Amino acid sequence: LAKTTQPISMDSYEGQEVNITCSHNNIATNDYITWYQQFPSQGPRFIIQGYKTKVTNEVASLFIPADRKSSTLSLPRVSLSDTAVYYCLVGDEDSNYQLIWGAGTKLIIKP
Amino acid sequence: SQTIHQWPATLVQPVGSPLSLECTVEGTSNPNLYWYRQAAGRGLQLLFYSVGIGQISSEVPQNLSASRPQDRQFILSSKKLLLSDSGFYLCAWSVGTGQGAWQPQHFGDGTRLSIL
């Protein structure tokens, strides 16, 4: 099972671009990478998912290098409401759904 | 639109009492359903998952059980709660069977369970 490593916390300022990197050195061939956002007392919210190269949607971009041993979530022009915990998750259909969730990255946006 | 309902939002129960948490999904058919537990400041731990009615798989041995009586209904139960059962319980779903399908796409807002 792929294990992920993320920074425990990060600070940034409104209007800045924030990049959160996740390390997953033992990612398997079939593993997908998914990022979630969680606010206090709420369930995680799916942000973006990718397999390789770059994926972009209306809220974020996900950069995955060729070796896929890491991935970077990029949040453009953050606001105070982006203060949350961000989780990187790696897994595939052959792992019996047992995906390992780390403690995530607590992102604090300052005015 | 796709929606997931989970209730109650908060629950305080004495040790040894029974438990029933319910989750229902709207706007999708034949979803994969999940129950997770989250300890304070920690990541999520998968407790149960289900790929269809009556099909339940357990990931963590414990005094909890799950049932799926209908396609879009998932129930978490216990006959006798322990202090260690306290936590934040989350229901989630995903669809499909292809690569990436097993990573939940939607979560409920959770139930904060406190055991006294």
Tell me what the structure shows:
The complex is a heterodimer of chains A (111) and B (116). Chain A contains no helices and 9 strands. A 5-stranded mixed β-sheet of chain A has the order 1-9-8-3-4, with no helix packed on it. A 4-stranded antiparallel β-sheet of chain A has the order 2-7-6-5, with no helix packed on it. Chain A has 111 residues and is mostly beta strands. The model of chain A has no long low-confidence stretch (mean pLDDT 89). The radius of gyration of chain A is 13 Å and the shape is globular. Chain A has strands at 9-13, 18-23, 32-38, 45-50, 53-56, 61-64, 70-75, 84-91, 105-110. Helix content of chain A is 0%, strand content 47%. With 116 residues, chain B is mostly beta strands. In chain B, the strands form 2 sheets. In chain B, strands 2, 4, 5, 6, 9, 10 and 11 form a 7-stranded mixed β-sheet that branches. In chain B, strands 1-3-8-7 form a 4-stranded antiparallel β-sheet, with no helix packed on it. The radius of gyration of chain B is 14 Å and the shape is globular. The N and C termini of chain B lie far apart (38 Å). In chain B, 36% of the residues are buried. The model of chain B has no long low-confidence stretch (mean pLDDT 89). The interface between A and B is medium-sized, with 26 and 31 residues.
